[in-house]
Predict the structure.
Amino acid sequence: MKHLLSFIVMLLTVISGHAQTITLNSEGRAADYVQSILGRAAKVAKTLQIEGTGKGTQVTHIVANRYFELNDIYAERDSLKKQASALTGDAKKKAQDEAENLKDKKLYRTHFGFIAQLALFLNDTEIETVKDVMTYNVVNVTYKAQLDMIPTLKEEEKVQILAWLKEAREYAIDAESSKKKHETFGKYKGRINNYLSKRGYNLTKEREEWKKRVEARGERL
C-alpha cells in the first residue's frame, strides 16, 4: 500500500509538471490567424475569471490548440473531397464518403483528449463552462427558455431535455462553424419538441401563452 501511494504521488507530480508546459501549436500558421484564435480562446479564461494567470494561459493554449486541431481536420476533409471531385460516379461518392468518415474518426479520437487536457487544470464545473463558451451558451439559454415556456414540465422531462442539450453540445463543440453548431442544436431541439408532443404538450398553445407572459413582463422573445 505504501509503494502504491508513493507511485500515485509520483504520477500526480509528473502530470502536474506536464500541465505547466502546454505550448501553443502555432508553428506554420499565419500570425493574424493565430491572434484571431487566441482572441476566441481567451474568452474562456475571461469567463472563468482566470485571465492573466498561469492557469489562464494554459487553458487558453489548450482551447486555441483545439481550434487549430479542428481547423486541420476539416481542412484535410475539404482537400480530400476536392480531390474526389475529379472522379465520377460511384468512385466519386466513395471517396467523398471516406473523407467524411476520416473526419468523423479524427473528431471522435481527439475530442476526449481535449477534455482530458482541460481536466489537468479545471474541475468538472469549469469544464462545463468551457463547453458553454465554445458553443455560445446554447444549452443554458435553451434550457431556461424551455422551463419558462412550459412551467408544468415534470422533473423527468427536465432531466431528459437537459441531457439531450448537453449531448448536442458534445457534437456542436467540434462543429466547423457557428452555423453548423446551431444546426446541431437545431436537430436536438426538434427531438425535444417531438418528445414533448408525444408527452401530450400542445407546443403551439404553450408558445402562445409563453409569449403573452413574456410580453406582460415587458420583455421580448
